[in-house]
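Bench notes, afternoon.
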Amino acid sequence: MPYLTSTGTARRTSGADRLGFGVPGYAHPLLAPAEWAELTRPGTPLHWAVLNIDNGPGSRPDPHCLEAAGRLRNARARALRDGEPVDSVRAAGGRVLGQLDLAHGVRPFGELLADARSFLDWYRVDGFYLDRCPADRAGLPGVRRLTGTLRAFLGRDGGHLVLGHDTHPYPGYAETGDQLVTFRGAWSDYRWSQVAEWTADYPPGRFAHFVHGVPRTHLEEAMRIARWQGAGTIFFTDRGGRSGPESDRGQSDPFAALPRYWDEIVSRIGPGISE
């Protein structure tokens, strides 16, 4: 089974068996109204969704994005208030994250902070998704400096920071972000993937996987791989297209729309279903 650790050691699954969705960035709410509406439906096991207006916050507040972010915040507030088991996963997550494009470490620090401030001031985000995050050891000090400043911006609880490496990075990054995206790509690669051995030192759920081109008939296998590799946050879709650090994250991005089997995968994961 190629997706096992190279040493063959068993993975812990006590936390990763409760999968939830991380949405790496739907299209603009005007272009994807059904997608944004589905995220507010009671019982949808949403961990977080990324808000990306124009490869960042845009130049001014967008009323449609303000509305979409507000609806997500309200859905999380209802789940926290009501304490219903059906929304237990959303109550623990359900965050709105602003997308910051690090461009593999070449974007100026000041530009990133300005984008972060705009996301906070306009959309009241709960954290940030650091897209195209460096993955090598040389990039770690810069990312550590950025995340430290972002946590100061976010206040007392430090918000939620997701590092979008899209591959297994240098292990030191695991101490910098709340979650690391360690796979983003095609099902044909994912089903033969191997997890880095150092990830076994961290609790299940610290990692996120985004996989496109997953056939409906292989959903169970894909979820089994995610659990085995310690990923608690996923987004699987049957849609194809470009994905990865050089994709444009626009309408050609397979993760910008709902998978055609959305209702089925929601029911398979459910709010707290485990194997």
